[in-house]
Design a protein that fits this description.
By secondary structure, the protein is of the alpha+beta class. It has helices spanning 4-13, 18-23, 89-93, 113-118, 120-123, 178-187, 206-212; strands at residues 49-52, 62-65, 70-74, 79-84, 86-87, 96-105, 141-147, 150-157, 174-175, 193-196, 217-218. Strands 5-9-8-7-6-10-2-3-4-1-11 form an eleven-stranded mixed beta sheet. A hairpin with a 2-residue loop joins strand 7 (141-147) and strand 8. It starts with a helix and ends with a strand.
């Protein structure tokens, strides 16, 4: 049986469809002109695409599946827009229901005390915050999740490390390709409901996702 590593290796040598290249192309009109994301070695299951959605959350809901490394924007008629994500330690530390109470374009980033303690050389210099820009770990957009008036400290954001999409990473919450977080940011308003599943719960069966390859339709709409 093919492993995740095998599937990824097969995907890495397959040609990338022009519609996918267009989705992850450069965005020169951004405040900080954004370069294209190299997706030539990305497993196709982590590209933005529309898929069947078997759960019952209403359209407009965001559902995060940390175990399978996907985020879903639920659509009508049993469909959803699915994005690949990378999951940081904070992304596994909390699950439940929240809502987006703040959205930010080119946000400022401040590492938590725990992040500074774990990686003082890397994060210590930014204890007072890092200005927006291409080097900022939050990327070009961020969504901030709250439980009532309480900040969950859970974020959905871009990344400076696109090769980590589809993996577990040491820091951060839920990271997306920069072009994907820009796309998602434009689709969801403040007050959007967000469901974060426990690590062992999944929207789609793991085996079905593992063998699906690039069968779903890329979505650039």
């Amino acid at each position: 049986m093919a492993t995740d590593r095998d599937v990824g290796a097969i995907a890495s040598v397959a040609p990338v469809h022009p519609s996918v290249l267009a989705m992850y192309a450069a965005k020169p009109t951004e405040r900080f002109p954004l370069p294209a994301t190299d997706v030539s070695e990305v497993d196709p299951r982590y590209f933005r695409q529309e898929v069947a959605y078997p759960r019952r959350e209403p359209p407009g809901t965001l559902v995060v599946d940390p175990g399978n490394k996907f985020l879903y924007l639920v659509r009508e008629n049993g469909r959803a827009l699915r994005y690949g994500v990378g999951v940081g330690k904070a992304g596994l530390a909390w699950n439940g229901t929240a809502e987006i109470k703040r959205k930010a374009e080119w946000p400022r980033w401040t590492p938590t005390a725990d992040m500074i303690r774990r990686e003082p050389e890397r994060n210590g210099p930014w204890r007072n915050g890092m200005a927006p820009g291409l080097a900022n770990p939050l990327g070009p957009r961020a969504l901030y999740l709250f439980d009532g008036d309480r900040d969950t400290l859970y974020r959905i954001h871009g990344t400076t490390e696109p090769d980590t999409i589809g993996t577990n990473v040491s820091s951060g919450c839920i990271r997306m390709f920069n072009q994907d977080i820009i796309d998602l940011y434009g689709r969801v308003p403040v007050s959007t409901k967000v469901v974060v599943l426990p690590a062992g719960a999944h929207v789609e069966p793991q085996e079905a996702v593992r063998t699906a390859g690039g069968d779903a339709e890329p979505d650039a709409s």
